[in-house]
Design a protein that fits this description.
The complex is a heteropentamer, with 1 copy of chain A (about 325 residues), 2 copies of chain B (about 270 residues) and 2 copies of chain C (about 270 residues). With about 325 residues, chain A is an alpha/beta fold. In chain A, the strands form 2 sheets. In chain A, strands 1, 2, 3, 4, 10, 11, 12, 13 and 14 form a 9-stranded mixed beta sheet that branches. The model of chain A has no long low-confidence stretch (mean pLDDT about 90). In chain B, helix 5 links the parallel strand 7 and strand 8. In chain B, helix 2 crosses helix 3, helix 2 packs parallel to helix 4 and helix 3 packs across helix 4. The C terminus of chain B is likely disordered. Chain C has a single domain, classed as Orthogonal Bundle (MetI-like fold), CATH 1.10.3720. Chain C has 11 helices and 1 strand; from the N terminus they run H-H-H-H-H-H-H-H-E-H-H-H. Chain C is globular, with a radius of gyration of 23 Å. The chains are: A alpha/beta (about 325), B alpha/beta (about 270), C mainly alpha (about 270). At the C-D interface, helix 1, helix 4, helix 5, helix 6 and helix 7 of C face helix 1, helix 4, helix 5, helix 6 and helix 7 of D. Strand 7 of chain A pairs antiparallel with strand 1 of chain C. The structure holds adenosine-5'-triphosphate (2 copies) and magnesium ion (MG) (2 copies). One adenosine-5'-triphosphate sits at the interface of chains B and E. The site of one magnesium ion (MG) has 4 residues of chain B, from helix 1. Chains B, E: Belongs to the ABC transporter superfamily. Chains B, E: Pfam families: ABC_tran.
Chain lengths: ~325, ~270, ~270, ~270, ~270
């Protein structure tokens, strides 16, 4: 049903820092006012909790990755639309080891990572490319907040993690970066997802978000003083400074203009990626323990192509709102 | 009116029988002294009259009605071990007795009513000789001082039945005489029924209108808990009683004693 | 009318009263769950009981593909081992330090402020330092439990020793007891019931620290499973696991209560009346 | 030779003894920090004191660019508000339920098992449900503290009421007190000192729950700041924050101890001797 | 040898002076009965001799040496309020007295040595009439039974000095006589020095070789705590003493009393 007030949640990650900046600097309010609605932007510190809260219906939109969008809300029956595809990880996620020099040497190692997260996916892909499988290593679930400290412990040899933790881990003496997401470009996608039903009932909600996002993105990529100020603020919000934030941005493939994002989402690579992701998810039981195959949940792509059950489409890549921005129709 | 009647009362703790077939009628306004060897069940008997414990068999009645199974303001008590409120000063301990009644909601009085009640309380505190200690907490009192405080507290309610468990045991003869002088007129004026446990036979006889003794009549050396205590002597000292001379009333039937002795040896 | 404070329920009334609130909660849950399912047939937040049963049955009876273990039982075993070790160590430390601090004024002066300060440090906030000192293995999990509950035990037991009437300490000395003997024969036995009570009160926190430790780095355990499946909001696994933890904790609590009453009857005389 | 248990240190000896272990710990820290710096000049785990001072000075005296707040103080204010509210609510609930459960056998039968079970549920494991019910705002942080410490308070206070000698309850009734009056004038005041003691023991857990809540959803607060800089292993901020939390907690502890002794002198007579 | 000497002892609690300038010499082997009104400081005096509290002024010596500032096995005690160990049964309470000495490490005996000690303990338990209750915990004993247990415990160590604070207060005359009969020969045989507080003057005179009375000699009505108690009477009953007749020894100088009365009024 149509409503006037909307809630979105964000967590600290380089690709999502534009959201709090947009909220703080009044850009969100400006666009929301334009469409006569209110959008509240809430910070959640615990990433999984923010998605859980979205899935449980407390938020209308949330920042997350493509894999988590599939395994949490979509599997949980919440029809979710990837409204804004902001970037993909291009080195922001990586494997770092004190003992191994190559991925192949990981055989038999104990690896600390956040299990069932994109790190886990990255590891699976890396092992796959090196001709190994997950059976060849031991994974230890380790909380992301404690990853840096965990790597300092003498008995920890290898971790898989993301920025800014990755940068801290790499700085440790004797640490070798073995593999990172730059080697599987476009597979770890960061986006803002919203509830499909809400979006359908309130197209203005989507338009306001997209409008605000791209206005902010212009600042993020602005090399001038305004951009620096904005990036410095985003850095401060995520607990670092301008330099630190810029370093993280460097490992992120942003889609600063809507047309790029539309092109990426409409391309064939996304389908391949999601195929990989859903088979990884199925193998790890993320599609529900009772799921008979990777097909239980349908994923819809632009042009009507669907992976999986067409009768149960719960995740949709829909570039139409970004296209409005690209066409200047907001 | 506050006549107490016990019929066929037994009290058992697990295997041990403490009191056995107690039958007694206590007239309203009597002052009954209870004596008996240590551990024979005197305190237990008081606890039952108080309503703190129930007899395992038999019935207790007050003026013909079953005794309320819980303590109440009609029966005051001074326990053998001091049981004043440790968190109230001497004066407040006595004051509380007036406050419960007068202030159902807060149990506390304020302003003029408090001053009036406090005057009454202080009067009692002084009459038990604790005037100089009115502002102390019980923990700073000597043993005898605590016992006197408990007495003041119990007297404050002017209960129909007053149960005293060795109330003067910790007092020196002088203070003891003072307490006697305090208690006796109160008992007479208010027509209270008093049951007092004491080990001082002189006290038992000088204060009481009746003296009863508890004791075991049979002992099984193999199972000392098997038989309980009974009333072995019952002396009526009241000059107003039908037989206005000091005399035994209703002693145990000697035949029974002999029979039981024989049984317990067997 | 008897006073409310004197009305003691009988055996069966007691049982009914005890069960009632649980039935109420169960009823609330079932209706809330049904309501959410009507709104979203795939809702994961409050799954119906049938799904939880199915999920637990699977975990408890089907061997895991990767390890071949029955996950439910291997998780339970791993967690209980950690918990048991942590509890045993904490109880020993708590008793030893509690007694010494409670008995010896010199030690009180030296250690009581330290223990008070240590008990205030939130262990979660200094995890990095703990990792370096104790590693990330089983040891650090046990250590987290120990750090979490020992200061409470020490302070509580020291307090308990302090409440033993001075007359008893004096009496022991007049009977020729040394400080050590007084500690061993007077203070220790009178502290034991309170130790068990304090352990009962620590079961909740101990599980909390266990779960936190397992959430931070682990390969198995009840807390590990809960935090792992939280990644896909599998409340059908989380809720039964929470219920199972609660049940285990309650059983310990009950067992400790029984042990205390059987082992130290003199401490519960008042209760028996 | 006097027995160790009879040797009571004087005022100054007490002070020296109290300070000694802290000096020792400070010395250990400084040398460990220096050692690590020699091995790795960029070591972040154990920063030297100078860096910690610099970092705190910055947070405490330079306004944040974004909000203009002095972060150290605004964090402290936010956390203390949450903590204070949580503490006040918990104390009120704990006292009310503890008294009623301790006094009325009927309520004991109905609620004691429920409270025992509730106290065993690890709140961290059911956070998603809590957040849905109580929202993600200030309320849920306070609720987490309340859920975390109230069951302990209830159980502890109910136990305390249970240890008031029966003779006193009986005495009150013979003085004409109703159940309510007995609760108010006999049980309540004698429970108050223990409430304060129990609150002292709850300070540590309360901070723990506060920090956990702030780590999951918050925009300010001591726990939030620790969580925020943890990803960079900024121990030069974390350690001073932990020290500050510990200091705050210790001050509360001390204050509660003093209040208890000033407000309920009769409960501490034994100690004074 | 166990002669006690108090010189110029004062005891003050804050503002309140409890004992004032106490001077007394107690010969080794004496049996001193202490009497005096409730709250005058008798228990306080015993606590000082015991080493539990220190006088605020003055010195206490035992055989010429300053009294050890802590309790020890040379001075046994029976407190006014029962202070038996609640976690030990009656038999174990007495047994403990033997165990501390014999087993420095564990404070517990095993095997044959335990049986031997237990025999001694049970003998004592029976001699105070608690044989049938040997396996009970103190909480299941009556008041008088607990007090008897405390007496058995104190006697077990055969201390040089025995301090008794109203030890027989909670006992019936029969049991009391039994306790007297138990204590008297022990005292004589072992040459103990006994200091016993009692409120029963008959008991004080029949057991003691010397009776001393504490009392306040001056009272300031405005500040009741201002003056403490002193020794007002000191009667030597010992037939072996220099003056083998019952007589006052060293009473208070009448001049002093008069002076002080005058002062306290002023
Ligand atoms: N809770 C209990 N469990 C078992 N036995 C008990 C309990 N309470 C009391 N008794 C026993 O009951 C008997 C009577 O106790 P009670 O306190 O009535 O004696 P009493 O006559 O008052 O003695 P005293 O003069 O010494 O106070 C005693 O032998 C005691 O051991
Ligand atoms: N801790 C204390 N603080 C203040 N005053 C105290 C303290 N302990 C005892 N007193 C006071 O000291 C006085 C003497 O107490 P003590 O116990 O020695 O009396 P007592 O002669 O043994 O009396 P009783 O015969 O009643 O046992 C009393 O007036 C008492 O109020
Ligand atoms: Mg009795
Ligand atoms: Mg005394």
């Amino acid at each position: 049903e149509p409503k006037k007030e909307f809630e979105i949640a964000w967590t600290i990650y380089v690709g999502w820092m534009p959201w709090p900046y947009a909220a703080d600097s009044g850009i969100i309010k400006k666009w929301a006012d334009k469409y006569g609605i209110t959008i509240n932007v809430t910070q959640i510190n615990d990433y999984v909790e923010s998605i859980n809260q979205y899935t449980a219906g407390r938020f209308d939109g949330v920042t997350l990755t493509n894999m988590d969008a599939l395994t949490i809300p979509a599997v949980g029956g919440v029809d979710t639309t990837a409204l804004i595809v902001g970037d993909f990880s291009n080195g922001n996620d990586g494997i770092v080891s004190k003992s191994a020099k190559t991925v192949a040497e990981l055989k038999g190692e104990t690896i600390n990572l956040v299990e069932l997260s994109v790190s886990h996916y990255l590891l699976a892909r890396a092992l796959d490319e090196a001709g190994l499988s997950e059976k060849d290593v031991t994974v230890v679930n380790t909380s992301d907040a404690d990853m840096v400290a965990a790597f300092k412990a003498p008995d920890t040899t290898t971790v898989v993690t993301w920025n800014p933790l990755l940068a801290e881990v790499k700085a440790e003496p004797g640490a070798n970066a073995l593999f990172d997401s730059a080697q599987i470009p476009g597979e770890i996608i960061d986006m803002l997802a919203v509830n499909t039903q809400t979006l359908k009932d309130n197209p203005d909600f989507g338009k306001a978000l997209v409008g605000a996002w791209y206005e902010t993105m212009a600042l993020v990529v602005d090399p001038g003083e305004a951009g620096q100020k904005a990036r410095a603020a985003m850095g401060a919000l995520s607990g670092t400074d301008l330099a630190g934030f810029d370093a993280q941005l460097a490992a992120t493939k942003l889609f600063p203009v809507p047309a790029d994002a539309v092109a990426f989402v409409s391309g064939p690579d996304v389908v391949t990626t999601m195929e990989n992701v859903r088979s990884f998810s199925f193998d790890h039981g993320l599609l529900g323990e009772g799921a008979p195959s990777a097909d239980v949940v349908g994923i819809e792509f632009p042009g009507g192509k669907v992976l999986g059950d067409t009768g149960n489409v719960k995740l949709r890549f829909d570039p139409s709102y970004m296209a409005l921005a690209a066409d200047g129709k907001l | 009116m506050s006549a107490i009647r016990a019929s066929g009362i037994y009290m058992e703790y697990g295997d041990q029988i403490v009191l056995e077939d107690i039958n007694i009628e206590i007239a309203s306004g009597a002052f009954v002294s209870v004596v008996g060897p240590s551990g024979c069940g005197k305190s237990t008997f008081l606890r039952m009259v108080l309503g703190q414990e129930r007899p395992t068999r038999g019935t207790l009645t007050l003026d013909g009605d079953p005794l309320p199974g819980e303590p109440g303001p009609d029966r005051g008590v001074v326990f053998q071990r001091y049981s004043v409120f440790p968190h109230l000063t001497v004066a407040q301990n006595v004051l509380a007795a007036y406050e419960f009644d007068a202030s159902p909601l807060l149990g506390k009085l304020f302003g003029a009513r408090r001053r009036a009640a406090m005057d009454k309380a202080m009067h009692l505190v002084e009459s038990v000789g604790l005037g100089p200690h009115a502002q102390k907490y019980p923990s700073a009192l000597s043993g005898g001082q605590q016992q006197r405080l408990a007495i003041a507290q119990a007297l404050a309610k002017e209960p129909k039945v007053l149960l005293l468990d060795e109330p003067f045991g910790a007092l020196d003869p002088g203070t003891r005489a003072q307490m006697h002088a305090l208690l006796k007129p109160l008992w007479r004026e208010h027509g209270m029924t008093v049951i007092m446990v004491t080990h001082d036979l002189k006290e038992a006889f000088s204060l009481g209108t009746r003296v009863i003794a508890f004791d075991k009549t049979r002992i099984d050396p193999q199972a000392p808990g098997r038989y309980g205590a009974r009333i072995t002597y019952d002396l009526d000292l009241d000059p107003r009683s039908p037989v206005p001379v000091l005399g035994f009333s209703r002693p145990l039937d000697p035949v029974t004693i002999a029979q039981e002795k024989a049984r317990s040896v067997a | 009318m008897r006073r409310a404070m004197n009305i003691v329920p009988g055996r069966s009334a007691r049982l009914v009263l005890a069960v009632l609130p649980f039935l109420l909660i169960a009823f609330l849950y079932v209706s809330a769950s049904a309501e959410r399912r009507v709104a979203n047939p795939n809702d994961k937040l409050l799954p119906p009981v049938s799904e939880m049963v199915a999920s637990v049955t699977r975990l408890a009876s089907e061997p895991d593909k990767r390890s071949g273990d029955l996950l439910f039982w291997s998780d339970t075993a791993a967690s209980l081992t950690r918990l048991g070790t942590g509890f045993a160590v904490s109880a020993a430390l708590g008793l030893a330090f509690g007694l010494v601090i409670g008995m010896l004024p010199m030690v009180t002066a030296g250690l009581a402020p330290l223990v008070a300060v240590l008990s205030m440090i939130p262990p979660m906030a200094i995890l990095p330092v703990l990792f370096i000192v104790f590693g990330l293995g089983e040891l650090s999990k046990v250590v987290l439990i120990v750090i979490g509950i020992t200061p409470f035990l020490i302070r509580d037991l020291a307090m308990t020793v302090g409440t033993i009437p001075r007359e008893q300490m004096i009496k022991a000395q007049t009977l020729g007891a040394s400080t050590w003997q007084t500690m061993l024969r007077v203070a220790l036995p009178q502290t034991m019931p309170r130790l068990l009570e304090a352990l009962r009160l620590s079961i909740g926190p101990a599980f909390l620290f266990l779960i936190s430790a397992e959430a931070i780095a682990a390969e198995n355990g009840l807390g590990y499973r809960i935090f792992l499946v939280r990644r896909y909001l599998a409340m059908d696994t989380i809720l039964p696991y929470v219920a199972w933890i609660t049940l285990l904790a309650y059983v310990f609590d009950f067992a400790l209560a029984k042990i205390a009453r059987a082992g130290f009857p003199w401490a519960y005389v008042q209760e028996a009346r």
